[in-house]
Amino acid sequence: xxVTKTQAPAARTGWLAALxxxxxxxxxxxxLVVVIGHWAEHIAQAYQLWVLGWAPAQARxxxxxxxxxxxxxxxxxxxxxxxxxxxxxxxxxxxxxxxRTWWTIALAIQFWHHIEHFLLLLQxxxxxxxxxxxxxxxxxxxxxxxxxxHLFYNTIVFIPMVVAxxxxxxxxxxxxxxxxxxxxxxxxxx
Length: 190
Prior knowledge:
Layout lengths: L14 H5 L4 H27 L17 H5 L1 H18 L5 H30 L19 H24 L3 H6 L12
Helix pairs in contact: 2-6, 4-5, 5-6
Keywords: Membrane, Transmembrane, Transmembrane helix
């Protein structure tokens, strides 16, 4: 029986390694700014609907008020869903341990959210609405109104994402040893 030496993993190189290495904290911060900006739109729209009592057609968030076409653009909504999906996918390698599990949950949920937006975009592009509906309709929109559904989707993606970031910035000692990104805590040695 021969014994072989375990080799150290090869150093990661390239832009993806840099993104999940020395630029991970900055990339996470930029990604979080985009996500919070989108959240602000959903919160404003919910406020307009449920606090101010506006009709759904008038409750267009912040940017939708001066630019009403934005709220009706399935390309814009699908584009954001893709940006979220790509961001969650590209930033995932920088996570370890418990934080990676939570980030992966956010990624999986966003993948489904993206499918729902793809169905909406497809209907808008084909000029044919599914399910005999007068407007493009996603699968879960058959049972939950669109505004509430997408507020829910963004919530269930955001929560595990925030948990992942929290755990990532406060890793266990074992997780900290595995981290190769700029988020790694500085540990004082005695």
